[in-house]
UniProtKB/TrEMBL annotation:
This is Unannotated protein. The chain crosses the membrane at residues 39-63. Residues 65-109 are annotated as: Disordered. It comes from freshwater metagenome. Keywords: Membrane, Transmembrane, Transmembrane helix. Residues 65-81 have a biased composition (Low complexity).
């Protein structure tokens, strides 16, 4: 029998209830520690069970069982020496940080109690090169008129060669494939009227689908002038040795040329990547997740580049649509202004993500981006604070050793609805986003739609898809797409849960016209558009005409 006696104050001194091995009463509380992964809890539980099992086996209480059978011999039993020393236990070492991983400057993180949690963080180092992190030195050129130029004011044109090896093209909603000289081009327009002409890396005689060799983006420039530039632009390898190309449009700049009156903007040393959310020197990155909604966002601390800011304003970011500037958005913008933060709102031209750009007092900026509405991102900005150096080092260390593993137990399931597919391509709606993807082109964009039956074409070089949507209470439930010399394609309109929208996507032969027949669940005809080409073919020229009309 073992009796436990209370500690003797005269022998050991007074003991506090907090004084256990490894802890003392001055230890900080545990409430500020990040939640541990359920995997870590499981592994710890297994370790405890293992240690208990070792102790039970070593003690072997059944060896002294009084009911055991006595030995049948009178000879003394051999003496057995039992080693009672504890077995060696491997203590896991603390995560270490490789010496070549930068930990400064420190970035920004959500405050305690925020619904947002850091998922991965890293620093670029004080001497981070914008070229190394933000894109490739593309040899892009930019020309603007002498007057005040904005994204949808004045005149400007940018020619950006694609990065070598980027063979997958982006599908353009409402895109029209045509020719410029002997080159194949796809013409499309952004929602605000800025026009794109993407030039194939091969002539009309070639057939292999690839991404564009160069993308020409402009406002206030006639579409015919843009096609003239597309037909004559020269490409060459960049002498910097990084594999980029240089676009030469000097032939179009002379008197009477399509770009007459424009002046060059010095972007020779600027790394331009149309997928970047800003241009400048990256300092730190914080990847965060919404533990209640499950979506992610990025918080990038960067030092802006003056010329890059011009490129960003004209080429990379478009204004937020007026219908998204709701009263809730205005309230949050005003709240941030009272805290001394003036925010700039926009939409990334590359993928439709929202961006909140925040100038800071020290001359740096925060670019907060993600597939959220403005209210969510502004709430995230409110919850951000600069991390201390010690906090940041701890977060970076955890990130490079497997991630921070925020508690996502309350995250709702994000539903994915397949609305088309076949062979190597598929089309899905996930949450509020539409994806169409195949080996020769794809898109990821906000899933927007109107009322009643609608058709939207998505095109790139030699590749085309048709998206059909309708809304309740319209009775359309099926479509049949017919093209010459091909079997008719029948597609069921699939309901997107919780939206009142039904949708389907079919792959088209890009070289053939088509017609669409709509029907209800009983296959009876329903009225709806039969061809989206008539409306989309004029979209780019209409946008170009509208932008040209804004000339002073």
């Amino acid at each position: 029998m073992i009796e436990f006696l209370p500690p003797r104050d005269d022998a050991f001194g007074p003991a506090d209830a907090d004084d256990f091995v490894g802890f003392d009463g001055d230890d900080a509380g545990f409430d500020d520690e990040p939640p541990r992964s359920r995997w870590l809890t499981l592994l710890a539980g297994l370790a405890v069970v293992g240690l208990l099992a070792v102790g039970v086996i070593a003690a072997a209480p059944w060896a002294g069982d009084e009911a055991a059978t006595a030995p049948s011999t009178t000879e003394p039993a051999p003496t057995t020496t039992v080693d009672r020393r504890p077995a060696s236990i491997t203590v896991p070492t603390e995560p270490t940080l490789p010496s070549d991983v930068p930990t400064e400057p420190a970035g920004w993180i959500p405050v305690d109690g925020s619904r947002w949690a850091p998922n991965y963080v890293f620093s670029f180092g004080e001497e981070a090169d914008a070229f190394a992190w933000n894109g490739f030195r593309s040899g892009a050129v930019l020309y603007t008129s002498r007057d005040e130029v904005g994204r949808t004011s004045g005149r400007w044109i940018a020619v950006v060669p694609s990065q070598p090896g980027m063979d997958t093209a982006q599908l353009r909603a409402g895109g029209v494939e045509t020719t410029a000289g002997d080159r194949r081009v796809v013409v499309s327009s952004a929602p605000d009227g800025v026009v794109r002409v993407e030039v194939a890396p091969w002539t009309t005689a070639a057939t292999s689908p690839r991404g564009p060799a160069v993308t020409i983006t402009a406002f206030g420039i006639d579409l015919a002038a843009m096609l003239s530039v597309a037909a004559t632009v020269e490409l060459d390898w960049d002498s910097t040795g990084v594999g980029a190309r240089v676009a030469d449009v000097t032939a179009s700049l002379g008197p009477g040329g399509p770009l007459d009156g424009l002046e060059p903007v010095p972007v020779d040393d600027l790394a331009i990547n149309p997928w970047a959310e800003h241009l400048g020197t990256s300092l730190s990155w914080t990847d965060v997740v919404d533990t209640r909604g499950g979506q992610w966002a990025g918080v990038r601390l960067y030092r802006p580049d003056p010329v890059g800011a011009v490129v960003q304003r004209l080429l990379l970011v478009r204004p937020v649509p007026a219908d998204e500037l709701t009263l809730d958005v205005e309230r949050r913008v005003d709240e941030l202004a009272r805290r001394g933060l003036r925010v700039e709102l926009g939409v990334l031209e590359s993928n439709g993500f929202t961006i909140v750009d925040v100038p800071l007092a020290d001359g740096t900026r925060l670019a907060v981006t993600g597939p959220h509405d403005l209210v969510d991102l502004l709430d995230l900005v409110v919850d951000l604070r600069p991390a201390t150096d010690d906090e940041w080092i701890e977060l970076v260390t955890a990130s490079v050793n497997g991630g921070l593993q925020p508690d996502m137990s309350s995250m709702p399931d994000v539903r994915q609805t397949t609305i088309g597919g076949g062979g190597q391509w598929s089309a899905d709606v996930t949450g509020s986003w539409l994806s169409i993807g195949g080996p020769d082109g794809g898109t990821w964009e906000a899933f927007t739609h109107g009322q009643g039956p609608q058709l939207v074409e998505y095109r790139t070089f030699g590749v085309a898809y048709l998206r059909a949507t309708t809304t309740f209470p319209n009775e359309a439930r099926r479509i049949v797409v017919t093209q010459e010399a091909t079997e008719p394609q029948e597609a069921k309109l699939v309901e997107i849960p919780g939206t009142g929208v039904l949708a389907a996507v079919v792959e088209l032969d890009a070289s053939l016209p088509y017609t669409v027949r709509w029907s209800d669940a009983d296959e009876l005809p329903v009225e709806g558009p039969i061809d989206a080409a008539a409306s989309t073919a004029s979209a780019a020229s209409t946008a170009s005409a509208a932008s040209t009309a804004s000339l002073p």
